[in-house]
Specification:
By secondary structure, the protein is an alpha+beta fold. The chain has one domain: 60s Ribosomal Protein L30, Chain: A (2-Layer Sandwich), CATH 3.30.1330. It has helices at 46-64, 84-92, and strands at residues 2-4, 19-22, 25-31, 34-35, 40-41, 71-78, 101-106, 116-123. The strands form 2 sheets. A 6-stranded mixed sheet has the order 1-2-3-8-6-7. The chain has a two-stranded antiparallel sheet with strand order 4-5. A hairpin with a 2-residue loop joins strand 2 (19-22) and strand 3 (25-31). It is globular and about 45 Å long.
Length: 132
Amino acid sequence: MEKLFIDRAPQPIAPFSHACRVGDLVFITGQMPTVPETNEMLLGTFTEQTHRVMQNLAIVLEEVGSSFEHVVQSRVFITNMGHFDEVNGVYASYFPQPLPTRTCIGVTGLAGGADVEVDMIAWIPPSEDSSA
């Protein structure tokens, strides 16, 4: 097992790693709408927050050698299910078809006042430069 800290991703505000790799799977900590350059929470609309969350996940996926194409499962946490369709539209735009498995959970609150958080499990395919 390898615990991973990603320098380009938003820095944790609590005691956790960005991801944990076990074999060819990576378990990615829930990402918030935090701007990596400033480490400040983007508290805009649900659309803006969902884009930032997905961009943060893209940073981690890229850093570990994976992508949205290889996501196996994700969990979406939102503070207001009235924005379910809005969040879904943004979320789905980051994935090729078919989509990965997913759970969406309505919560009463998230850290830092955020309205959207997403965590993921992804497959890390063999790199193209590795010998067979």
